[in-house]
Every structure is written in C-alpha cells, then in structure tokens.
C-alpha cells in the first residue's frame, strides 16, 4: 500500500477547518467512540452496533512470517469467546490492550500464525494478566495496556520473535510511516475475524490533529494516532495488536497498541487511536 503523503501547512489547515466542521456535526449527532470490548466470535448473528471499530481496513494480506512479533489471542469468559491481537515481549510475556485483558478469565495465545485457525500453530494457555493500574473505560479510554504471562516459555524461530520497545525520549514519531497488523474484520459488515493476517501502512498524525477529530474529549498525550485517510485503519478484532515503525536497521519497533476508533464505522477516513508504548 502506498504511504500517505506529507502535508503542506496550507493543506493541513484546510483539513483542520474541515475537521472542525465534521466534529461539530458528530457532536450534534451524538456519535461517541465505539465501546471498548473485543470482537465477539459469532457467525450466527450480526455484530452488535456498540463494539469498537478495530480491524484492518484498506490493507493487504501479509506474507507468512512477515510479522513474527504478532500474536492472536482467543479470550474466554464463562461461555463467551472473544478475539484480540498482541505482541511478543519475551519468551514468557505478551503485551495487548487492557480492554482485551479485562474481558477474559482465560486466554489462548497463538504464535507464529498466518492462518489463525490452523492446527499447527504454537499456543500457550494462561489466566495470568497484569492490567495497567490506571486503566479506565468510563467513556474516556486511558492507559489501555496490559501484559499476559505464561509459565512455559516459547522458543523463538523465524516466525516467532519478540519485538523491541522505543528508546527513551525517541520522540512523537509524527509523520513516520507505520504499520498496523491483525486478523480483524476486513469489511464493516463481516461477522468474524479474517482467516489470514493482514496489515495496513499509514502515517502518524499529530496528537493535536487527532484530538481535534475526537472533539478534544477522548485522545490523550499517551495515545498515538494514524491518519485514517483513504479509509485505511483498524477495527473489530485488531484490538491490542501492534503498531510498528521500521527503523534504519530495517527492524520493527513497537510504538502503539490498537485501542479505539469512531462509532461512524471502520471506513470513514477517521484516525485510528492506539495506546502509545513507552508512555
């Protein structure tokens, strides 16, 4: 996918003015954020309208092994099952969104997968989780980050690798080309996760621009946003998954975790919002 072009100052201001108008319309229509719950796994009925817009939209199918840090997480709570994404931190730890961790009593983590339902994938089951102590989901999502731990360490291979975290004071990554990946829905009206891993490339926008698009009410300094232009972004099922930047050495650095989107839908060219890793 072609990266978003850098914006001139005049173009940015035109977008800001238009965004302000759109924001006013949105407030009048009382369209809030998507509620932060992972994707329910049910092909027997349409998805509820109040689940988050968190799936790969406008992207491409990944090649096997392209994102060795990516994991899929099957989440179970009582008789319900949900799905989220995550990233490998080390041989015993996965990082994901807090709204994914709080949704479950037990977790099955899938490593090294391209086809998420393939029987040959490496898995670990656990109920051990650590949710950020200041996580809030009261309509203003904050500190949406959690860790999952498992006792039996995984062995690293070409398709299973940990991802590095940003260096201290590495900056905001504004206008950097970034990549989001996951098995989330490919179309707004889909009813279950994608069978194979997908990814989308976009550009990081300023937090001021992102806050403007979200009515100065939801986005915090601990978030990082991608543009969403040309209907490229994340939606249901991608929650907790990685946003990475490829640095000069060609290796990825984890800069964000898929967190939330606007309730208009997944293909409305609105910024996708991530928890900023390192904040």
From TrEMBL:
<keyword id="KW-0645">Protease</keyword>
<keyword id="KW-1015">Disulfide bond</keyword>
<feature type="signal peptide">
    <location>
        <begin position="1"/>
        <end position="29"/>
    </location>
</feature>
<dbReference type="GO" id="GO:0004252">
    <property type="term" value="F:serine-type endopeptidase activity"/>
</dbReference>
<keyword id="KW-0732">Signal</keyword>
<dbReference type="InterPro" id="IPR001254">
    <property type="entry name" value="Trypsin_dom"/>
</dbReference>
<dbReference type="InterPro" id="IPR001314">
    <property type="entry name" value="Peptidase_S1A"/>
</dbReference>
<keyword id="KW-0720">Serine protease</keyword>
<dbReference type="InterPro" id="IPR009003">
    <property type="entry name" value="Peptidase_S1_PA"/>
</dbReference>
<dbReference type="InterPro" id="IPR018114">
    <property type="entry name" value="TRYPSIN_HIS"/>
</dbReference>
<keyword id="KW-0378">Hydrolase</keyword>
<dbReference type="Pfam" id="PF00089">
    <property type="entry name" value="Trypsin"/>
</dbReference>
<dbReference type="InterPro" id="IPR033116">
    <property type="entry name" value="TRYPSIN_SER"/>
</dbReference>
<protein>
    <submittedName>
        <fullName>Chymotrypsin BI</fullName>
    </submittedName>
</protein>
<feature type="domain" description="Peptidase S1">
    <location>
        <begin position="56"/>
        <end position="279"/>
    </location>
</feature>
<dbReference type="GO" id="GO:0006508">
    <property type="term" value="P:proteolysis"/>
</dbReference>
<dbReference type="InterPro" id="IPR043504">
    <property type="entry name" value="Peptidase_S1_PA_chymotrypsin"/>
</dbReference>
